[in-house]
């Protein structure tokens, strides 16, 4: 079944190559025909708005939650599994993936700074066999499908109980033994140690410089969630040595927050210095502090994780915010809607707000807590909220082919219509020129060839097809250069816009189909 799905996607790409190689004839058009020009102008004026919505899913690699299915798979199995994920993302109408590439101070790509991940090869520091670059592979395959790829870093976690204790020589435990601490069942880098801040910054900038990623992403793990002893009391995080050296007279909690603040600001500035078009996104715990907004109860990340998530948003140190709103619409202490409204109210620099949704809670397995409709209703609540423009779903495991209920709900209701990601206007970027579209007949069937107007890279084509007096929108990968007959079957006209990686789109080119 999986192989059939793969070939169902690959076949059209093969046909494109066949079409462009075959001799074809252009459909003659009377040049400078004023009646034709007036008709095209009327069609252009009738074009409906193309939906804009960020639709992403987290793909977690820690503990092999989503990919690869287990450590140590041969290269072809890893690649096949990732292709299946990307094909399914496209099938479900999503337009972005947030792929975890540094789960525990390790790497899902060749790095001179950190070892290969245990979760990839079954051994810390061991490269894939046969060798390949999983991150480069993921980027190429995602972009070929018109999917944005954001890469997800854990800036401070250094070890997880699901991984082997055998560590490579360049693991942070060996590089910075005095700045990595055992804490509960995990190992944690000390955010207050300057050598750790410098190292994690270099790791992230290395990826920004070497890879064509669309975004850099971090979740809610800064200082660790508290570990409790046998009496139920919090175990202090063992950073007293760093605090004694670098505390500057601040209270411990204020010093810890300053460490994280400085790191976030530094990463944002570093990304923009190197590649201004790469987005920086954070996914903090969904509650800033209890009582914000009024009536909200629960965990206090400001004191518990030393994460002043409101400050980062208000300062504009991000391009998008994905607060983890992992509660139901009718939750008594953490209702989805009021929390979403509160975060939007704090968004004084007008960044993207794309809340995170716990689709795993509606999974049909034994831990099911919600009906699937809850997820659909949350997506709809997001759409109805001015200032929010998308959702990020945790995680890919709940969208596997065996989870028919969730997938069908997204396909038939929430994501029945395709959408472009929202434009990120504050990062600038050129607007592409109007593309050239030429209708050709091949074996008596019309094909539309697409040519960009300039050197602005095209990430997607926005294609609107007029059939029986109604426009229907299709989002086509920018790598394609021909619209095949299946897409324009029965159409009387087609409108095409070129769309960049930042969502900037051209004016439409409208062509008539005989």
Features:
514 residues, Immunoglobulin-like, TIM Barrel, 9-stranded parallel β-sheet, 4-stranded antiparallel β-sheet, globular, disordered N terminus
Strand content: 15-25%
Q: Helical percent range?
A: 25-40%
What distance separates the N and C termini?
Answer: 38 Å
Q: What is the averaged pLDDT score?
A: 92
Walkthrough of the structure:
The protein is an alpha/beta fold. It folds into two domains: 15-51 and 427-512, Immunoglobulin-like (Sandwich); 54-419, TIM Barrel, CATH 3.20.20.80. The protein is 32% helix and 19% strand. The protein has helices spanning 2-21, 34-45, 75-91, 118-121, 134-144, 172-175, 194-210, 240-246, 252-274, 301-304, 309-315, 336-345, 372-383, 404-414, 485-488; strands at residues 25-26, 54-59, 96-102, 148-153, 157-159, 180-183, 186-189, 215-218, 227-228, 234-235, 279-282, 320-321, 352-353, 356-357, 390-393, 436-442, 445-451, 460-467, 470-477, 482-483, 493-499, 509-512. Strands 13-12-11-8-4-3-2-15-14 form a nine-stranded parallel sheet. Strands 1-16-17-20 form a four-stranded antiparallel sheet. Strands 19-18-21-22 form a four-stranded antiparallel sheet, covered by helices on one side. Strand 18 (460-467) and strand 19 form a beta hairpin.
